[in-house]
Specification:
mainly alpha, single chain, globular
Length: 402
């Protein structure tokens, strides 16, 4: 880096974090959501309580693992524009350890959530799937996947911290090698986790697109969360000179792209099932067509694609934090809505099929998990320097033009 480049670097602020109002709201969400979940368990509606827990814990688990995946993608792509925003995905990875523990708690709810966890000798399909669909394999494979995410997340953040201390290209090279290994493992482990936690709720259903759909959910929601935090940073001027409209524009283009990517994958899954018209495949959508679920199903593409896509078409919406934050918050809410449609119709509350209902308990539980995530994220965000000042790509990032 030239002497001119060094002197061009703005003065970095001290440790940064979320505002007191955001932290207070997060604490309130944890308290209210936790109380709602406890009340639901207490009144004996165990199926509703566990389904709400599953939605919430998977929602924030996706945000945590996105942090590692996003870092890996950016390192391998050589995305210099994102260097000054790297602390955001790094802080997101801090959730993986507590989030992994909370995910494994689902083993206690397996008898309520998953039909395959109970013996069904008369059900030939469940007997055929039993070597894979059993609680021992659930604990082993999901647990190993979560541990792998924690390890790779730690390796990525450690390489970044090493660069903060020593500088040079060596930490970047280590991070790129780690990234290449992780993305291969990520494709396998995300499939395993999504199969056990979500797909197996409909144990008689088949889908070759499900893991890809969950991947698009993780990428879309995670990118939207980064956009919310980065937009707030630009709005408040916290990292003035480091993160500006040009960086926000590139990030917003990623948010925009993920909305189209999600729509493409979601339509592909629906179209292939509709066209083939096989009973073992159509059962998934038929269950969400009846018992009052159809209006909820129709709302989903509006929330996740149509509205965000149209709002982000103007160039100005991608360069200014307020509209970007608003659209990104809608996308984050839409992820909750999709998880509700994945889980709710599959978990009956009493005799007969699951009935559609306003997801009050599910939303409260998810808000509690999001509150916990925000608190962990905030602590990690302020744990070290807000900008990687010794990254050799910093100069290119500061002079970046979208």
């Amino acid at each position: 880096m030239s002497e001119t480049s060094i002197h061009a670097v703005p003065h970095a602020p001290g440790r940064i974090g979320l505002s007191r109002g955001v932290r207070t709201a997060a604490l309130a969400a944890v308290a209210a959501g936790g109380a709602t979940l406890a009340w639901t368990f207490g009144r004996g509606d165990v199926a509703l309580a566990w389904s709400a827990y599953l939605i919430g814990v998977f929602f924030v688990l996706g945000l945590g693992v996105f942090g590692v995946a996003w870092l890996a993608i950016l390192y391998l792509a050589g995305a210099t524009w994102s260097v000054t925003m790297r602390r955001i995905p790094e802080a997101m990875t801090a959730w993986l350890l507590p989030g992994g523990v909370l995910t494994m708690v689902l083993l206690f709810g397996a008898p309520t959530l998953y039909e395959w966890s109970q013996p069904h000798p008369a059900d030939e399909l469940l007997v055929h799937k039993a070597p894979f669909l059993n609680t021992t394999m659930f604990a082993a494979l999901v647990g190993a996947s979560l541990i792998a995410w924690v390890v790779f997340g730690s390796l990525m953040v450690s390489a970044s911290k090493r660069q903060d201390r020593e500088g040079g290209m060596r930490p970047t090279q280590i991070a790129r090698t780690t990234s290449a290994l992780f993305l291969v493992l990520f494709a396998i482990t995300l499939s395993i986790v999504s199969f056990y936690l979500l797909l197996s709720l409909d144990a008689h259903w088949f889908s070759t697109m499900f893991a890809v759909l969950v991947f698009t959910d993780v990428i879309q929601t995670g990118t939207a969360f980064v956009a919310i935090v980065a937009g707030a940073i630009v709005l408040t001027g916290t990292l003035k000179g480091f993160v500006g409209e040009e960086h926000l524009h590139s990030l917003a283009k990623m948010v925009f792209a993920t909305t189209g990517f999600w729509a493409y994958i979601y339509f592909c899954q629906f179209m292939l099932i509709w066209y083939a018209n096989l009973p073992e495949e159509t059962a998934y959508f038929m269950r969400r067509w009846n018992e009052g679920w159809f209006p909820y199903l129709l709302v989903l593409p509006m929330l996740k694609f149509v509205v965000p896509f149209l709002l982000l078409v103007p160039r100005s919406a991608k360069r200014h934090p307020k509209p970007l934050i608003a659209v990104s918050m809608l996308i984050v809410f839409a992820q909750f809505w999709e998880l509700y449609l994945m889980v709710g119709p599959a978990v009956a509350h009493g005799d007969g099929p699951a009935q559609a209902h306003l997801p009050v308990v599910e939303f409260a539980a998810t808000a509690a998990f999001v509150g916990l995530f925000v608190l962990v994220f905030n602590r990690a965000l302020g744990a070290h320097e807000p900008v990687p000042l010794k990254d050799p790509a910093l100069s290119a990032c500061l002079s970046y033009h979208a």
